[in-house]
Design a protein that fits this description.
By secondary structure, the chain is mainly α. Helix content is 84%, strand content 1%. The protein contains 12 helices and 2 strands; from the N terminus they run ααααααβααβαααα. The chain has a two-stranded antiparallel ribbon with strand order 1-2. α5 runs antiparallel to α6, α7 packs parallel to α9 and α11 packs antiparallel against α12. The longest helix has 40 residues. It is globular, with a radius of gyration of 23 Å. It starts with a helix and ends with a helix. The relative contact order is 0.07.
Length: 346
Amino acid sequence: MGVPIIFFLLFFYIWSNFVSFFTLHGDHSARTTLLNLTQMVVVLLLTSRLSLVFEGELGQFVGIYIFIQALLIYLWTLVVRADPEHIESSRLYLITCWINLVLLLAVEFVGSESHKLILLAIVVVLQVTVMLVNSHYLTAEMRRRNLPIVESESSQERYGQLIMIVLGEALALITEAIMGPAFMHSLVWFVAFIVNIIGLWWIYYAFMDNISLHVKHDIFIELLHLFNEILTIMLVIDILLMYLFLESHATFYMGLYCFAVAITVAIVFGIKCFATPHRDRHLFHFLGAELVGFFIVASIGSWLPAIIAIWLVNCFLAMIIFNEERYQLEAQRVEQGAKGAEQKRL
């Protein structure tokens, strides 16, 4: 499972790095459009090499990735040249990009497949950690320029779009599972997993709606991004386990799937707690108790009949959704009542 996660993250950080560039420094010029189209075409070429990757041939994949890394270095070098004051917050990031380029070149010359994977894993680790370490310098630059340190809505929107793509892949897998000859048996699992995926989607958007973070240090923004990245990885693991179960119908994989879903929901809950620390504590305690029950059910999922395990998980998802939606409705009523009272007073 580690190898698919490494390659997923390699793709993920292409998306993340280019999104950051075009969000912060993109415009409607012909050059920006050309660079964006070039990145899209090269990523398509990179995707076409994935079948070779899982056959143990990494050369072509890494060669294309080297080009993408060089393009990324070029883009951020242009930013520093256009505005030299950006060097304070970009220096460490650019150094890391160059180190990653050297590591990728080394992959092309290393003979052992295990050594190649180790070097690619180091590239991923550097990508994960660089912005956390760089947050000190970014905070200093934002303060010097008198700019607020906030999480942009567009950033959270893009994470949400990525989550939708991942969940869409899950729906495609479930749909494929009902194409076998045993239609009624497949239909039972189709309904169970569809409800499960819809529950995960609903929980994500119920909890992540209106996430906003105004902080004094960029480390909190980077931690929020890291939590979103961990959530995306967990969803990918959920899909892998779901696929393994649908292929084998082994209760072992169902137990792992239930536990992975519980961890996924806990991460969403944790992100909400992190982004809104002053929220109603009674609701947090209640949802926390539901999560504990969720983990208890998930931990015994391997010993239960698979169909019972998945529907118990669906019931816990429904309870969490119900309580979160009820809280949001009550909060809206309170807000509307406060606005009405204010208007009457005026």
